[in-house]
Amino acid sequence: HAEEAIPRDTGDVRGLQIRFDAYRKLGNQEKADEAADALRAVGDLGEAAKRLFNEAVDSYNSGNLPDAQNKFQQVTELDPELVPAYTALARIALQQGAPTAAASAAAAATQRQPDNGQAWTMLFDASRMTGDEDTAATALAKVAELNPDFVAGPLFDHATTLYNEGKIEESAAELKRIVAAQPSLARARYLYGMCLYNLGRADEAKGHLEAFVEMAPDDPDVAIATEMLSYVE
């Protein structure tokens, strides 16, 4: 019916949208691509992209991640500026254990929306998983600026858990990022210093323990930090 209607009014946006949706749902990608090109020609892909985005959300909520991923990807092709589609792709990729894909999608979101704290957080998570420390550091610095509570809260709590579980090297790696992003976080300086000390890097530990004592003189762990410093000296 859409094919019959469109020749009568080539500017019929709704007819163009229906034709695109119909071919897409039939699985005829070639015809769907042609229909999308026609929509681009009249400068209106917005509504089609939004409808597809809503379908993707429904698939995600029902647990059908492959279908959701496919539809979110189509959304980005229809409307490259629809940022939530990129963050959704990043989230799915992280859930699927695909950090490289997650980093790519999150980076696309941050490029289009530099103040999107959620996108920067996912870029940080994905980058540290791939071992891209430079990107992870850049992303975390942005997270610290946009959402300092994440650094001082969940991220520091995770580093503390690693330390308490005896995973000193992993905790130190996490704390190194935290201290770089938020150097005024006294407890992070203390725990990072303790990690370094336990790893046999006493000279590096000294500066962080001294900073902790100076920043938080009333903290109960100042006594421990002071004792560690006496051994270093």
Give a count of the beta strands, DSSP E runs of length 2 or more. 0
Q: Considering DSSP H and I runs of 4 or more, what fraction of the residues is helical? A: over 70%
- Derived from helix and strand composition plus strand pairing, the structural class reads mainly alpha
**Helix and strand sequence:** HHHHHHHHHHHHHH
Distance between the termini: 85 Å
Number of helices: 14
Oligomer: single chain
* CA-based shape: rod-shaped
Provide an overview of this structure:
With 233 residues, the chain is an all-alpha fold. Helix content is 79%, strand content 0%. It is built from 14 helices and no strands. Helix 4 (46-61) runs antiparallel to helix 5, helix 6 (83-95) runs antiparallel to helix 7 (99-112) and helix 9 (133-146) packs across helix 11 (168-181). The termini are far apart. The model has no long low-confidence stretch (mean pLDDT 88).
In short, what is this structure?
The protein is an all-alpha fold. It contains 14 helices and no strands.
